[in-house]
From TrEMBL:
This is Pilus assembly protein PilN. GO terms for biological process: type IV pilus assembly; type IV pilus-dependent motility. Pfam families: PilN (PF05137). The chain crosses the membrane at residues 21-43. Keywords: Coiled coil, Membrane, Transmembrane, Transmembrane helix. Signal peptide: none annotated. It comes from the Bacteria. Residues 47-94 form a coiled coil. The keyword Cell membrane does not apply.
Amino acid sequence: MAHINLLPWREAALKAKEKEYYTILTAVSLFAFVIVLAVNFYFQSRIDGQNSRNQFLKNEIAQLDIQIAEIKTLNEKKEALQKRIDVIEQLQRSRNVGTQVLDEIAKIIPSGIYITELEKQGNSVQLTGKSESNNHLANMIRAIELSDLLSDATPESITADDGSPKLLSEFKMKVKIKGLVDESATASVNKRARKR
């Protein structure tokens, strides 16, 4: 009789097992919550880091856009300035063009041709004169084409004067001056410069 236990040991064992079960369940739940919280914190920190990098890149791109716009305006100013410099250099070269043209015409006119009128129009010269023969005019045109200052000799008219005792023919010829800036081009560059 000494080994008979009359206490409700089955209920006590069941209660102990339930207590152990709830303790393990609470520990597992707490552990799972901590893991979920840690994973959430890790990925949130990664997202925040990426967002901050994205914002940094956006700020840098905005600054680069501003610098690109400044570079474009500087390039436009540089091109306009270069055009003005080119015009000034051409004007500088053509400063003494009047005396150079007269000197060159005196060199290339063969005997038998007489210039009666010379008129400058932009970057070309209108020659009016008299010639003893068309061969002299052809020689003069060849000399103009070989010239370093003059080019594009274009005869506009050749008329024979029957009333003249020497049978001189009158001619009109247009000749271009090489390297001389056109006045219309200078005016357009000056207008663009004033607008800026």
